[in-house]
Every structure is written in structure tokens, then in C-alpha cells.
From TrEMBL:
InterPro entries: Flavoprotein-like_sf. This is Flavodoxin.
């Protein structure tokens, strides 16, 4: 899945952008399921951080996720990201084994400090082992979480 997806009519006024950084593929898998869940309510663009837009103009919900590790490209993108006019809500996620700390906490902090409104704390999706595959049911959790995020957004008009 990539690019723009949306299951309802284009009359909706809200738009989402899901950006991810992955080393082992787990964050990409979760990002794809988040995009699918959001697409039930609004148009969604899905991008790897290396192809992500540098401005959130026209975006109502920004979701950013990563897997464990130090990702210079994600930090570079965050440091050059320009928040568009108007309110932009944001949410963060990570994929991790139980032994790993949350990799998205710094992303959450950065977004909050640059004017994004975080809708809720970072959501973690769990791996069976470090660098390993996602635990069973995590992709369904990601889709349900995305539907929850979309349902909780206030109606916005441009």
C-alpha cells in the first residue's frame, strides 16, 4: 500500500499523512495498517521518511512511527518539517520488543515542542523478539487504533 487511499467520497475535508521509518519492515507494516484504518474516514498519504513531504499544509492528522534504533533520517526530517497553517493533530507509534525502550518518545516530544497537538501518548506495537516479526494480532490493533484516532478528531473545515 502506498500513496493516497480513501474508501469514502472525496467530500470529506480532513486529510491524514502517515510517515514511517523502518529497518526491519515492522514499522512499515504497522504504518500500512494504520493508513488503511484511517482511510475508512479520510484521504491518507503514506510515506517512508525518505519520501515524506517537508510541510504539513493541508494535513489534519500526522501519524509518525519508527522501529527500534537510531534513525538520523527521521530526526533530520523532523528538524526540517514545517507545520502548515491551522491545527495539526499528531500521533506517534513504534514497534518494539518488550526489552526495548520506546523509540517514538523523542518523536512525540519533538512534535509537541514544534506546535503539533498530540492526540494521545505513543502507541507501541510489539515484536516477538528484537528485530523480529510482529506478534500475532498487532496489525489488527494498528487498524483499530487508527479508526479510534480518526473517530476522535473534531470536524474540521477548510
Amino acid at each position: 500500500m502506498g500513496g493516497n487511499t480513501h474508501e469514502q467520497g472525496e467530500a470529506d475535508t480532513m486529510r491524514a499523512l502517515v510517515v514511517y521509518r523502518t529497518t526491519h519492515g515492522s514499522a512499515r507494516t504497522i504504518a500500512e495498517h494504520i493508513a488503511a484504518g484511517l482511510a475508512r474516514r479520510m484521504p491518507v498519504d503514506l510515506a517512508d521518511v525518505t519520501n515524506a513531504p517537508s510541510c504539513t499544509a493541508g494535513v489534519d492528522l500526522l501519524v509518525v512511527g519508527t522501529d527500534p534504533g537510531h534513525h538520523d533520517d527521521l530526526h533530520h526530517w523532523l528538524n526540517t518539517l514545517h507545520k502548515g497553517p491551522g491545527p495539526v493533530r499528531a500521533a506517534t507509534f513504534d514497534t518494539r520488543a518488550d526489552t526495548n525502550p520506546s523509540a517514538a518518545r523523542t518523536v512525540e516530544h519533538h512534535l509537541r515542542s514544534t506546535g503539533f497537538h498530540l492526540t494521545e501518548p505513543t502507541r507501541s506495537f510489539h515484536l516477538r523478539r528484537p528485530g523480529g516479526p510482529l506478534r500475532s494480532g498487532e496489525t489488527d490493533r494498528a487498524r483499530r487504533w487508527a479508526e479510534h484516532l480518526a473517530a476522535g478528531l473534531p470536524a474540521l473545515t477548510r
